[in-house]
TrEMBL record:
Protein name: Oligopeptide transport system substrate-binding protein
PROSITE patterns: PROKAR_LIPOPROTEIN (PS51257)
Gene Ontology terms describing biological process: peptide transport
Biological source species: Spelaeicoccus albus
PANTHER family attached to this UniProt entry: ABC TRANSPORTER SUBSTRATE-BINDING PROTEIN (PTHR30290:SF83), PERIPLASMIC BINDING COMPONENT OF ABC TRANSPORTER (PTHR30290)
Keyword Chaperone: no
CDD domains: PBP2_NikA_DppA_OppA_like (cd00995)
Length: 550
C-alpha cells in the first residue's frame, strides 16, 4: 500500500491516495447514469443520538446524514483516498503550520458564502469545553487547544479561541499545530472539521434540528426530520463538489429492528439495507428477491469495560480483563452466528488498513484459552473476591442479542460467573447512557473509521484527551505511555516509523485491555433489484450519492 503521510502538500493537487482498496459490492458500478424521474433512494438508519451538529455527532446514524448535508475541506473517495473539496490548496513545509486556501463561490444552502470564518469559527466552537461537543478532541493537535479545553477535572477554559487558528482573509486561513502531524490534512474530511454558517451560533440546538450545510444534499423542508420515523434529504443543486448526486434524494428511514428493514427490502418497500439480520446471514446471498453485497470490511467490534467499574481497575482489573478475553471463543461465534461474515480480531484496528497486524506482542490474549482464563480469574479473586453479575450492554434495535448471549454463555461456562446481556431499546438511548456515564456495566462498542488511518482507531478511542466526554474514549481509559506512543506516531518522520509507533501503542492496549476486541465486520447488505450502482466505501457505508434506480 502507498503511504498515507506527506511532508508537503502541493497547491491544487489531490491530497494523498492512501488506500488502494476496492470495497465495491457484488452489484456495484461507476454510478455514471443520470437521475431518472422520481429517483429518491430509501435506506435504513436509526434515530441520531443528538441534533445534527457536526462537532457533536460521533455515532453512525447521525454521521450518515451529516456527511450528506455538509462538505469539508477535503472529501473521501470510496477507496479511502482524499481529494480537495472546499479547499483549493493545503500547503505545509513542516507539517506543523498549514496554509489553507478555499475555492471561491462555495455557499451554504441559505445563500451564505463559505469563507475562512465558516471553518475557523466552527472549529473554535467545537473545541471550547463549555460547548461540550463530543468531537472536541479532534481539535487537540491545534495550538491553543489546552487553553479552550484544559485537561483535568473541573478546570475551566482561559480562552475562547485556539491561538493556532488565524483568518488571513475571506478565503485563506492558517492552522498551527502544537507539534508536527503529517497526516493532519487526511483528517479534514471528517465531519468534526465541517464548516458552519453564522446562523448556527444563534441557537445551536435549533440549528441541529434543521441543519444548513454546504454538501451534496439539503434537508427536504422544515419537517424533513420526523423524529423516530425518517430524515429526508434532496439534491442540492448549488453543490459543485466531488460527490455529485446521481439520484434526487435520500430517505433515511428509521428502524428499531433490522429484521423489519430487511423484510421491507425483500418486499420492495425499502431500497437498501446496509446490514443483514443474524436470522438471514445464512440465506441473504441466495435470496432471489434481492441483490446481495458482501465484501471485507473495516469495522472493528469490541466491548468496553470502564475502569471505574468495581473489580476492573489495577492489577485485579487487568487479570479479569485478560481472563474474560481468553474465555471467548471468537472463531466459534463468528462461524456459528455470523456465518463467516465476521473475522476474529487480532488487534485493535482492521485488516484493510495499513498497519493492521496479526502478530503484535501480547496478541495471544485474544485467543481462546479457557484453562488459562480460569487461572487468571482465580488469581483476581485472591486479590478481591468477585461479587455480582457480569452484564454486557447492547442496543436491541440492531442485531446484537445472539452474539451477546453467546459471549455471556461462554463467560458463564468458563469463569463460573453469572453473565448476561443487558439490552437497551434504541441505539440513541444506549449511546446517551454511555456518553452520560450512567451505564454501570460493560457495553458493546466498536469503531467505523473517521479517516483511513490506524491512528484514528487508536487515538479517538483510547487517548486520555478523548476521555471524560471530550471524544469517543467512552471507557475513560488513561495511560501516559500509550498517549506518548501515539503522539510519537503522529509526528514520526517516516510512515514506516509511524506505523511501528502505533503498533507499540497497541501492544500497551493488549496488556491493559480497556476494551475486549472481538471481530472485524464485513460489508453485508441487500437492495431491491431495481437499484443500480450500489457500492460500499472503505468504512462499510453505502456510497449514497452514486446510487440510482432503474
Amino acid at each position: 500500500m502507498t503511504s498515507r503521510r506527506h511532508k508537503t502538500l502541493l497547491a491544487g493537487a489531490a491530497i494523498t491516495a492512501s488506500l488502494s482498496l476496492a470495497l465495491s459490492g457484488c452489484g456495484s458500478g461507476s454510478g455514471s447514469d443520470s437521475a431518472e424521474g422520481n429517483n429518491i433512494i430509501s435506506v435504513n438508519n436509526g434515530e441520531p443520538q443528538n441534533p445534527l451538529i457536526p462537532t457533536s455527532t460521533n455515532e453512525v446514524n447521525g454521521g450518515k446524514v451529516i456527511d450528506a448535508l455538509f462538505a469539508g475541506l477535503v472529501s473521501y473517495e470510496p477507496d479511502g483516498s482524499t481529494k480537495n473539496e472546499v479547499a483549493k490548496s493545503i500547503k505545509s513545509k513542516d507539517s506543523k503550520t498549514f496554509h489553507i486556501t478555499l475555492k471561491k463561490g462555495w455557499k451554504f444552502t441559505n445563500g451564505e458564502k463559505v469563507t475562512a470564518h465558516s471553518f475557523v469559527d466552527a472549529w473554535n466552537y467545537g473545541a471550547l469545553a463549555s460547548n461540550a461537543q463530543l468531537a472536541a478532541n479532534f481539535f487537540s493537535p491545534i495550538k491553543g487547544y489546552e487553553d479552550v479545553n484544559p485537561s483535568g477535572k473541573g478546570k475551566k477554559p482561559t480562552a475562547k479561541k485556539m491561538s493556532g487558528l488565524k483568518v488571513q482573509d475571506d478565503y485563506h486561513f492558517t492552522v498551527t499545530l502544537s507539534s508536527p502531524q503529517s497526516d493532519f490534512p487526511m483528517r479534514l474530511g471528517y465531519s468534526a472539521f465541517f464548516p458552519l454558517p453564522q446562523k448556527a451560533y444563534k441557537d445551536m440546538k435549533a440549528f441541529g434540528n434543521h441543519p444548513i450545510g454546504d454538501g451534496p444534499y439539503k434537508l427536504d423542508g422544515k419537517d424533513a426530520w420526523q423524529h423516530n420515523k425518517q430524515i429526508s434529504v434532496v439534491k442540492n443543486d448549488q453543490y459543485d463538489g466531488n460527490r455529485e448526486p446521481k439520484n434526487e434524494g435520500i430517505d433515511f428511514r428509521i428502524y428499531t429492528n433490522i429484521d423489519a428493514a430487511y423484510a421491507d427490502v425483500q418486499d420492495g418497500a425499502l431500497d437498501l439495507v446496509d446490514m443483514i439480520p443474524e436470522s438471514a446471514l445464512k440465506t441473504f446471498k441466495d435470496n432471489s428477491s434481492t441483490k446481495a453485497y458482501s465484501k471485507p470490511g473495516s469495522v472493528f467490534q469490541s466491548f468496553t469495560i470502564p475502569g471505574r467499574l468495581k473489580h476492573f481497575s489495577g492489577k485485579e482489573g487487568r487479570l479479569r480483563r485478560q481472563a474474560i478475553s481468553m474465555a471467548i471463543n471468537r472463531k466459534q461465534i463468528t462461524k456459528a452466528i455470523f456465518q463467516g461474515t465476521r473475522t476474529p480480531a487480532t488487534d485493535f484496528t482492521a485488516p484493510p488498513l495499513e498497519g493492521y497486524s496479526k502478530n503484535l506482542k501480547g496478541a495471544d490474549v485474544l485467543k481462546y484459552q479457557p484453562a488459562k482464563a480460569k487461572k487468571l480469574w482465580k488469581k483476581a479473586n485472591q486479590i478481591s473476591k468477585w461479587t455480582g453479575q457480569f452484564k454486557l450492554g447492547y442496543n436491541s434495535d440492531d442485531p446484537h442479542k445472539q452474539w451477546v448471549d453467546a459471549v455471556s454463555h461462554q463467560l458463564t461456562n468458563t469463569l463460573g460467573i453469572k453473565a448476561s446481556g443487558a439490552p437497551v431499546a434504541t441505539f440513541s438511548q444506549f449511546r446517551s447512557e454511555i456518553t452520560s456515564r450512567k451505564i454501570d456495566h460493560p457495553f458493546r462498542s466498536g469503531w467505523q473509521g473517521d479517516y483511513p488511518s490506524i491512528g484514528n482507531y487508536l487515538v479517538a478511542l483510547y487517548s486520555s484527551g478523548a476521555a471524560d466526554g471530550n471524544g469517543s474514549n467512552d471507557g475513560d481509559y488513561k495511560n501516559k505511555a500509550f498517549d506518548q506512543k501515539v503522539k510519537e506516531a503522529a509526528s514520526a518522520k517516516t510512515p514506516e516509523q509511524g506505523i511501528k509507533d502505533y503498533q507499540a501503542a497497541e501492544e500497551i492496549l493488549l496488556k491493559d485491555l480497556p476494551a475486549i476486541p472481538l471481530w472485524y465486520e464485513n460489508v453485508s447488505g441487500a437492495s431491491t433489484k431495481t437499484l443500480k450502482h450500489v457500492q460500499f466505501d472503505w468504512k462499510n457505508v453505502p456510497v449514497y450519492y452514486n446510487i440510482t434506480k432503474s
